[in-house]
Here is the input.
Amino acid sequence: MADLTDPTDTAAPRGTLIVGNCQAGVQLASSLRELGDTEPITLVGEEPHAPYQRPPLSKAFLKGEASADSLAFRSHDFYLTHQIELVTRERIVKITRDATGGVAVAESGRTFPFARLALTVGAMPRTIPFEGSELEGVHYLRDATEAAVLEHRLRTARTVVVIGGGFIGLEVAAGARASGKNVTVLEAAPRLIGRAVSEQTSEFYLQAHRRRGLNVVLNATVVRIVGEHDRVTGVELGDGSIVPADVVLIGVGVIPRTELAEQLGLQVDNGIVVDTHAVASDGATVAAGDCANMPNPSIADFGNGRLRLESVQNAVEQAKVAAATLLGIPAEHKTVPWFWSDQADLKLQIAGLSGGHDQVVLRGDPDSEKFSVLYYRDGTLIAADCINSPLDFMAVRNSLHKGQSISAEAASDTSISLKKLATGTPALSEKVTSP
Amino acid sequence: MPTVTYVASDGSETIVNGFAGDSVMETAVRNGVPGIVAECGGSLSCATCHVFVCADSAPLFPPVAGLEDDMLDGTAVDREDNSRLSCQLKLTDDLDVQVTTPETQV
Here is the structure.
């Protein structure tokens, strides 16, 4: 029988539990310590690795230039010295909350009591149940384990089919093509990267990839994946033709992991719905990263003003806000979204969000493979796609950050740097010089 | 073993033992040194690992090259003659490096 006088027996649970060993999770834990939190912190996730960078999985990792260890965000010493308990290989399947905190239960039965809860559970690849998806050689790509298998398979592959012409698909396709393989990209939509860039940028990437020998099929209908002896041999299209393949990668986007949030009764709508402080609908749980749907100031006057973003910067910034919120420190997410994609020798950098643009300005010549597309709404700069043009990217990102614009009339003149064209009064919070 | 001294804009110092082959940026991030963000993980896409290299350390590294030069033009705190992106600064054995981090990276 428990000794009821033992204070530890009846004490409320202490500390923060962060579910999700990923960029947002490790940032949240780090930020809690940076902000002076001395309570216990547990970071738990199902993968066998310490948190690592995911973006290289579709790039350097597949060339054999990186491993989960080399991509780790933090050293083991960091977790020790900052007293962050890192728990790997534990998948949380159930969470219950009460007035003082709650408890999370892993598949193994291990329990994790907490006073404060953060969900950085990320997203998982959207799957399409094509006939033949179970064949050996058909892959999805989200984590280091999948990347390692794919890397191994690609070494000996001669023909590769990528289903989905988005960032992940094109990065993998461009890498495989550069190493001499016969690569076909099958995109269901009429253009590449349709979710993220304008028609001009899509058209450029179509031509640029074709120049590099990539086969691209737009408006493609995949009927099924075909194989022999349980191994993939090709992909059958709507017209009955079969594209041969030793390896098939399906990269058709991700869906946010919301099972735990739903179990907790949190509001879910394309991710876990949070406010600008990263707080979910129960007023207590915080969420950050790919799984969180947050109001975004960049689109405050557009749509419903909310967005679920899949990017490093978004994960990092939301995690910082979530950490501050848990400690009762006022913080709001207000940085300018930005994204990057390295495909072959083409560096794409995107600043801002182009949704709802009503004007597009082309700066530079796409045939030179060095140009930018600037997006305007109501005459104000809102975003840019910059291809091999880091100067333009930095100028646009900084302008948007400072609340400045760049004249649409002048922006197409490549003889003048965009940095010089930025005008407008920087917001008061920006770079206030001490007297 | 190379060591890197990170001096924050407020003058506080963090000294970290690094490994040959790692960059000044990686060494900072793995050890949670504040002042270096490094959103893009070293792919020369973000310019959030900006540092000012101290005069003694500067000659230890190859000079600024094309893409790094362009990215340095847009750092959150304006570049100076000793500005570098720390993802491009690779440590070698027994090299002691000192850098100062800017007030902000974004």
